[in-house]
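User: When convenient, might I ask for sequence and structure tokens for a protein?

AI:
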Amino acid sequence: MIPQHGTSNAQTTAPAQNKISDTPGHLSENADTTIQAAKNRRPLVIAFSHAVSELLVVKSVRAYADLRAKEIGGIVLLHGTTQSGDLAHQLAEVSEWIEQGVDAIVAMPIEAAALQPLVARAQAKGIRFLSYAFPLPESDGMAGFDSLLSGSMCGAAAAAFIREQFPDGGAQALVGALAATPLFAPRWLEPISMIEAAGGKIVALGDGATVESGRRQTGEALLSYPELSIVIGINDEFALGAAQAFEAAGKDPARSFICGQDGAPEGLREIARGLHFKGTAAIFFDQLGAAIVDMSVNAIEGKPASISIPCEYISLSRPAQLEKLIKAFETVTGPR
């Protein structure tokens, strides 16, 4: 049993959406057909460009994509090296893949307009071009997820915490944003709206997606607002850093609420500690990683190639599911 220390009922209120997949890597309903087809064609080369590949969560997505590619067989998966939303780097790596003549490119668009000429160039060479996370005009498909739902889940849980712990007002919150990826805006705009509607006050807006940025910016906010009790991270890494800052400041876990987004293994393990990190809007990473491969293969074969992967609010209110997710990650990525 996972221990529960200093938790409140607020972590149980965000509605769960769909069910975490029981079988990592299985997205296609016709998996056997896909695997059999791979035996009858030449190897395919699929390239994946993430805008912030340095994030720990990207390692999990890549691990599941690699697993799916291995499961199907006959697929070479290339991983890009773009970091910190560096548009010039992404354009260069995508351009290089086009020159190499890969079969499909999946890219998280840092700037849709800047990628558009490369989309046309790739398609002119017979390369399928898909987007990751967000739709991209004129692309051949998408492996996406719902940032609006993710932000709403964290916002709803934070609002419930405010109503329970601060019925007379006074709740102060920091909400993490990420200027480099404005398409993720629902991840911070939804929580801001819901926290304010519940009577909370946003005293700081963060900017970053790493553990270090979450720890530093939360620590700085605590100097000006020592009663700060709520942090919503743009992702689990920022939230993890915020939890470290709360712990270092000696905050009472029973009067704090930190929520992450993505469901990364590092965040899940921190939730299991039962302290400040109360929940996360977890994306189904097995499906998302598999979608990078499956949607690319579908696009190459002229089949429908767009999907939006759901997410689910995970907290200590569901200890069995939390433990299950942690163990599932360890079987694919190893302990971290």
Remarks:
- Residues 47 and 328 are 25 Å apart (CA to CA).
- The chain is about 45% helix and 20% strand.
- Confidence is low (pLDDT under 50) at residues 1-29.
- The domain at 31-144+285-309 is CATH 3.40.50.2300 (Rossmann fold).
